[in-house]
Amino acid sequence: SYVLTQPPSVSVAPGQTARIACGGNNIGSKSVHWYQQKPGQAPVLVVYDDTDRPSGIPERFSGSNSGNTATLTISRVEAGDEADYYCQVWDSGSGHYVFGTGTKVTVL
Amino acid sequence: QVQLQESGPGLVKPSQTLSLTCTVSGGSISSAGYYWSWIRQHPGKGLEWIGYIYHTGNTYYNPSLKSRVTMSVDTSKKEFSLKLGFLTVADTAVYYCARRDSSGSYFDSWGQGTLVTVSS
């Protein structure tokens, strides 16, 4: 089955840029979506179809996808961005929805 | 804005069957293209897709759980349900219902989640 690998943790100072990688075989050929999950809360979609943002999501959140890596970038990081982030794709080969292993973003 | 709310028991015994219901409000469960899903999260772990159901009753389950999963939908009540049988302690998790967007393969609305503990 398709596997998505993320770094367990990323630390970033306020005002700086956080980049979260999501690795998968030829992931560039798939649409990648990203979710933010704060403790005790349900995930929230922050980027879909590689680069698009749902309404209400700040422009500070952006995405890219090429080759074997998709990336979620959070610019001008704020304390409120501290959360777990998950990438997700639909694997057409199996028909499954696959989530990444998750990355905990810590704001220093 | 559509809202989803899970309901069901918080504690079930091993070998029994878990039954959860998700109630949809603020939108139609019968809208074309939306797939109604169940996703779970083991304590301190990542997300696992369980399966989805369409308003017509068509279903698709994660093969790793397929033998134990049944989903159903009641459009008149704007509800869809999950049954997971032959429970073990490994099924202890927060269970979320979610809506897969009609135009893409992402989940744009989620319930708040319900913790289900499997214990004797």
Topology readout:
The complex is a heterodimer of chains A (108) and B (120).
Chain A: E1 9-12, E2 18-23, E3 33-37, E4 44-47, E5 61-66, E6 69-74, E7 83-91, E8 96-99, E9 103-107
Parallel strand pairs in A: 1-9
Antiparallel strand pairs in A: 2-6, 3-4, 3-7, 5-6, 7-8, 7-9
Chain B: E1 3-7, E2 11-12, E3 18-25, E4 35-41, E5 47-53, E6 59-61, E7 69-74, E8 79-84, E9 93-100, E10 107-110, E11 114-118
Parallel strand pairs in B: 2-11
Antiparallel strand pairs in B: 1-3, 3-8, 4-5, 4-9, 5-6, 7-8, 9-10, 9-11
Question: Could you describe the 3D structure shown?
Answer:
The complex is a heterodimer of chains A (108) and B (120). The model of chain A has no long low-confidence stretch (mean pLDDT 97). In chain A, 0% of the residues lie in helices and 45% in strands. Chain A is mainly β and 108 residues long. Chain A is globular and about 40 Å long. Chain B has 120 residues and is mostly beta strands. Chain B has strands spanning 3-7, 11-12, 18-25, 35-41, 47-53, 59-61, 69-74, 79-84, 93-100, 107-110, 114-118. In chain B, the strands form 2 sheets. In chain B, strands 2, 4, 5, 6, 9, 10 and 11 form a 7-stranded mixed β-sheet that branches. In chain B, a hairpin with a 4-residue loop joins strand 7 (69-74) and strand 8 (79-84). Chain B is globular, with a radius of gyration of 13 Å. The interface between A and B is medium-sized, with 24 and 20 residues.
